[in-house]
Design brief:
- The protein has eleven helices and ten strands.
- It is an alpha/beta fold.
- It has two domains: 178 residues, 3-Layer(aba) Sandwich (D-Maltodextrin-Binding Protein, domain 2); 95 residues, D-Maltodextrin-Binding Protein, domain 2 (3-Layer(aba) Sandwich), CATH 3.40.190.
- The strands form two sheets. Strands 2-1-3-10-4 form a five-stranded mixed sheet.
- Helix 1 crosses helix 8 and helix 9 crosses helix 10.
- The protein is globular and about 55 Å long.
- The two termini are 22 Å apart.
């Protein structure tokens, strides 16, 4: 058995991975998967790729593009979620802020610098026509940190995936004042260069296994009820999320990468564009 260390967020997008592990689909390919969850999100995963703590990460597209540009020795091997991520913009339920425009020149709570909650604050600011140089942030590490932080005035708003945070909106912890979708496919699979060079056939088997699972995922009997139960979501919310979500099994198109890099440069998140071959890997 070859051990492969994989990391991602503890969210409903990743149920195809968990089902594949539980059904021993990777073991049938002589692969043992060691799965690690990162509640802190993409910034924590890019660090784990750099240190070799994990071999593969399923993470936000804009976050890994930025970190590869900044020297992360990894490459994107394919998309995982083809559709945009819907980022809810949240404030504490008792907050005085009522709409997105009220948040100009306030402080955003982020899991860490380089995370999706950090980068998407820039996308939202651009959408609103704000000067991104004036953005301010408070690091709160994860969703639990945001709950405590916003209630105690550490950050004025928090951006996180719409459906993951909906139970907190429903129970009166947060108030959602708007949404901000990513302008590109939201999740990709990235692999450390060292692993791509030393175990290319193993990585291909991992991708083949998860792609088979994700391609058939929405057709599984009762999958909406399984998701609702495992992730403590309302069935109606899961059905809406499933209708909006498509899994991908192919490499990120170079024209999409170009669009992402142009956007990140315009937001001063990266200061240069790399050649696609320095970011994307094809077998």
């Amino acid at each position: 058995m070859t051990k492969i260390k994989i990391g991602s967020v503890p969210e409903h997008f990743n149920l195809p991975w968990h089902l594949s592990i539980e059904n021993k689909n990777f073991e049938k390919e002589n692969i043992t998967v060691e799965w690690t969850e990162f509640p802190e999100g993409t910034g924590a995963m890019t660090k784990a790729l750099r240190t070799g703590t994990i071999d593969i990460a399923i993470l936000l597209t804009e976050g890994i593009v930025k970190d590869i540009t900044d020297g992360n020795p990894s490459k994107i091997v394919q998309t995982y979620i083809e559709t945009p991520l819907i980022w809810g913009i949240h404030v504490d339920a008792k907050s005085k802020y009522q709409k997105i425009t009220d948040l100009k020149n306030t402080s955003g709570a982020i899991s860490r610098y380089g995370s999706g909650s950090h980068l998407m604050a820039y996308v939202n600011a651009k959408n609103q026509g704000w000067n991104t140089q004036n953005l301010q942030f408070e690091v709160i590490k994860n969703l639990d940190g945001a709950i405590k932080g916003l209630a105690n005035g550490k950050g004025d708003y928090f951006m996180w995936e719409h459906f993951t945070t909906k139970p907190l909106v429903d129970n009166g912890t947060f108030r959602r004042i708007g949404d901000c979708p990513t302008p590109w496919p939201c999740f990709v699979i990235a692999v450390r260069n060292e692993v791509l060079e030393s175990k290319p056939e193993i990585i291909q088997k991992v991708l083949k296994t998860i792609n088979k699972a994700s391609a058939n995922f929405k057709q599984l009997d009762g999958i909406d009820e399984i998701l609702a139960t495992r992730y403590e979501q309302k069935l109606e919310d899961i059905k809406q999320w499933l209708s909006m979500t498509e899994w991908g099994q192919k490499q990120l198109p170079t024209e999409t990468l170009e669009k992402i890099q142009n956007q990140l440069i315009s937001l001063d998140i990266i200061d240069k564009k790399l050649d696609p071959k320095d970011i994307l890997f094809s077998f």
